[in-house]
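Supplementary Note 3. Input sequence used for the single-chain structure prediction.
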Amino acid sequence: MELRELKKLVAQGEGLTIEFKRKASHPDKIMREVVAFANTEGGFLLIGVGDDGSLPGLKYPDEDAFVIKNAIAKYCSPPVEYELKQVPVAANRTVLVFYIKPCQQKPVFVIYNFRQGRGRAYVRVADRSVQASREMRQILKYANSGQQIGFTYGERERLLLHYLAEHRQINVATFARIAHLSLKEASTLLVRLTLAKVLQIIPHESGDYFMRTPEDW
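The predicted structure, written as discrete structure tokens, is reproduced below.
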């Protein structure tokens, strides 16, 4: 990648597939963005770019690259694939361009408890990395499995679609209440309908919600 290509990328601003980081400090936190890209559509992690789109670069890019590469290997599970380019932006200043590839084995987690192997999954929503809900993790897991997901159109499904015709969106708790289901039962049905492409899930920091797929409107 050349400088003009980098500037064109930066001019787009942070978004679904672009994240700026001024420095490589706190690499464990930067892994949230790495994992979110891997769980969504992939994306560019630019180290040495200010939030305002300025290009201060890094004085010691090899050291910063080493830090980030080690963090990806340490904290991300399953492994994340990426490409790295170093783009000089001024005398003795370089921007690191990590292209994070979308992972085929989802969900990808940031491991925070190595002894017990526990971690958190994240997905990319606009210019933010949002922790994946239980439903989102299930959808990520089965979306690439190749399994054909079907469902039976019964009273609960009819009630759900009637509600969405009036309100356009619903969350697990609301569906459980109107359908007289447990939260687990409501979650399972919403996930199944999403995998069957009847619904789409909209991740959100305050709680996911579900809508009819666009082609159904």
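The chain is about 35% helix and 25% strand. The mean pLDDT is 94.
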